[in-house]
Amino acid sequence: MTSGDLEEGVHEITSAETAYTDAPTVKRPGDEDLRVEKDAHSSLAGSPALSAMDVKGTAIDIPYAEHESLPIAVPRLKRRGLFGQLTLLAEVENPKTYLRKTKWFITFIVALAGSTAPMGSSILFPSLSQISKEMDAPTTVVNLNISLYMLSMSIFPLWWSSFSERLGRRTIYLVSFSLFVLFNVLSAVSHSISMLIVMRMLSGGASASVQAVGAGTIADLWDPHERGRAMGIFYLGPLCGPLLAPIVGGALAERWRWRSTMWLLAVYGGIIVIFIFFALPETLANRKQPDGDEQAPVEQQLSRISSRQVVHFTARWLKVLKMVFLDPLKIVLYLRYPAVLLTVYYASITFGSLYVLNVSVEHTFSTNPYNFSTIIVGCLYIPNSLGYIAASIFGGRWMDQIMQREAKKAGRYDEHGELIYRPEDRMRENAWLGAFLYPAALIWYGWTADKGVFWFAPMAANFFFGVGSMLIFSMATTMLTEFMPNKSSTGVALNNFMRNIFSCIGSLVTAPIIDAIGNGWLFTILGLVAFASSSVILAMKVFGPRWRKSMDAVSH
């Protein structure tokens, strides 16, 4: 993809001496002039086009964005984020005005980045025994590579989310993924089990940034009536990563031992860094700093300068300490809102079930009566992936259509005649389908695996689990970004915090419980809990509007 393709729909004029006609001009203090005029010779069928004049006076065709206004490029020297001036894709004043294919390109990058954290959690599954033998460590200690990795994935997003609301999305992406590459290199060269566990935990925390900040980026780009489909595509990365990773991890471990999996993660992280560096502009809304943050005039500083410097220095450090230690923990306080609490709980139960299922597949099909090889066991995660893909492609679009239908049915229009959307509208028949499919699939899988039925039967159950759970994941994440529109990454960070705690616990206790009571009863209990948890959908339908209004009143 060339820089010209990436910059479509936005064009920046860097000279103030461009010749003008009476075409409309957009000018802001300190910005360059941008001239656009109608192109009478547009070849776009049924679609108008604009042409911008570059510094040489050459007309460049720019097709209209679907949004009401054209994207206005931020001058290169004023682009935000770490090394923001070097991006090939220009930052614009309103990210929602990007052309659709530009939005999908950014969504693809974020989804690609989102696959790294969960992929890293499961790529070591096939090679845990190798690590145990090479480092002469007991299995319980080696398993900490997985459980502490998951724990760091639940905690670190609280900080990444808080920092992203202040520093922007791009800076957090670049810093966190650079650390991810570093910690995976150190994992690959670890000479002791303690070093490996620590480096793995830090790499998990570094890569977890995109789980919260990524959903915020999606909310920055897409309008509510399109966001469900975009969120479904975004979730393909985090969900398909851990399902494909065991296959790749098993093949690499058999050929080049377990360290090769860490080198693979480091290379993959490096590719993500390159994509972000050159093709991911800042998308966070540009918020004006409060007056209290502005530095005092020079005349005032001249008086009692020593005292003022001390006070200013102390205040600045107190503000930094508050941002680092207190602000991230304040995210948990959003659980006091019933709409947020119930949405997060339902997503967490579903995500915990996913990891219980993942551990069961490896534990069950590598032993009697199946006795499958490591690579074959890895391939058994494919049915889930197919279910996720199907639900992502069709479920997100279906959810957006439901939301529009409910808004039209209620007659909610603003003064411009545009539909007004409500987050709780997303929980309709799509939610009930997911609420039935994935618990039923858990029970189906549990008893077929417990009785040693031909492998196709439990794998068919896993496909339907993938469809049902994906409907819940994308719905919950999208709703959280809309319940907290000005803190979209905060809501998703809270969701990740809770769901990864559930998945951490699930991955630790699954194998002992299977040994004690078997797959059948374990997944029957889990399925019944999931069925009971679907009461969240009914509660949101009845009380959702009232809860949302109370949240809006507090935020305003």
Automatic annotation (TrEMBL):
A Pfam family annotated for this UniProt entry: MFS_1
Annotated segments matching region Disordered: 1-30
UniProt keyword Glycoprotein, yes or no: yes
Superkingdom of source: Eukaryota
GO cellular component assignments: plasma membrane
Catalysis: reaction(s): citrate(in) = citrate(out)
Protein name as it appears in the record: Citrate exporter 1
Organism of provenance: Neosartorya fischeri (strain ATCC 1020 / DSM 3700 / CBS 544.65 / FGSC A1164 / JCM 1740 / NRRL 181 / WB 181)
